[in-house]
Design brief:
With 273 residues, the protein is of the alpha+beta class. 15% of the residues lie in helices and 49% in strands. Strands 1-2-3-4-5-6-7-8-9-10-11-12-13-14 form a 14-stranded antiparallel β-sheet.
Length: 273
């Protein structure tokens, strides 16, 4: 966590000028009926939707590394990771600057292979904040096959006593015959020495669940491992609570305020699907 705060400080200390922002459009779609048969898959899709910390903190570190110039590194077991940047003013990040992180047959120490790019553009920057747009197009291959991640998002980052981030965007994960899509993502993240707190909301669809979407929101406190959220489908709801280890999900299949089933699932299983 300290490294992220240092990275944010580096970015803002290099700032010069700026102004602007971005958002995402709201779409309407048929709602999914959540049942006892599909509740587990709904939870898996919801936790993929909420899993944005890697994008948030990776983007902050990548912006700070723009000051280090073009670089290429060998990956653990083969392939390369390259970082190219375009600064209008040497050693100063300004609005309009851009960077690309590229992976070419990059094999990590677990034998997983990455290919693709992450493109960043600085929309505005000042001594107090920075706003960026990002496009992610990555493929990951492991023993289970290939997963493709595509996302488009904007981030507003500020740092005072804590690191504050506003994230807006959409993303899609494709793995075999399953595609999970998340739109209208709006999230706020606070990070400090006490931990990470986040408020998240988005609209989720999953090809394995057929037609229909559900709304998902989740929030956590800065100094607590507990998070609470709700999933809303077509006249059906899952209310969930997690202690950071186990997720308790209370399913109401017809919104009659009666819990029809309670699921207990390890949080790690939902993130590692």
């Amino acid at each position: 966590m300290k490294a992220l705060i240092v990275a944010a400080s580096i970015i803002l200390l290099s700032a010069c000028g700026g102004g602007g922002g971005d958002g995402s459009s709201v779409t309407q779609a048929q709602k999914l009926s959540i049942t006892q048969a599909n509740a587990r898959q709904v939870l898996e899709a919801a936790y993929f939707a909420n899993d944005i910390e890697g994008e948030v903190f990776g983007t902050i570190i990548n912006i700070a590394e723009m000051l280090d110039g073009n670089q290429t590194f060998p990956c653990d077991l083969g392939g390369t990771e390259s970082f190219t940047m375009s600064l209008q003013t040497p050693e100063v990040i300004t609005a309009g600057d851009s960077a690309t992180l590229s992976f070419v047959d990059c094999v990590n120490d677990e034998g997983n292979t990455s290919n693709g790019t992450v493109d960043l553009t600085v929309e505005s920057i000042s001594e107090e904040s920075v706003s960026v747009n990002a496009i992610v197009d990555l493929d990951f291959a492991d023993d289970d096959g290939v997963q493709s991640l595509n996302s488009i998002f904007s981030m507003d980052v500020s740092y005072q006593d804590s690191l504050f981030v506003i994230y807006r965007g959409s993303k899609t994960l494709t793995s075999g015959n399953r595609t999970i899509s998340v739109t209208n993502i709006v999230a706020s993240v606070e990070a400090s020495e006490l931990g990470v707190a986040m408020d998240f909301s988005g609209v989720v669809s999953d090809s394995l669940l057929g037609q229909g979407t559900f709304d998902f929101s989740l929030s956590s406190e800065l100094d607590s491992d507990v998070s609470e959220g709700v999933i809303r489908g077509d006249n059906s709801t899952i209310e969930l609570t997690s202690d950071g280890v186990t997720v308790m999900a209370a399913l109401d299949v017809n919104n009659d305020n009666v819990v029809d089933e309670t699921l207990f699932i390890l949080e790690s299983e939902l993130y590692d699907q």
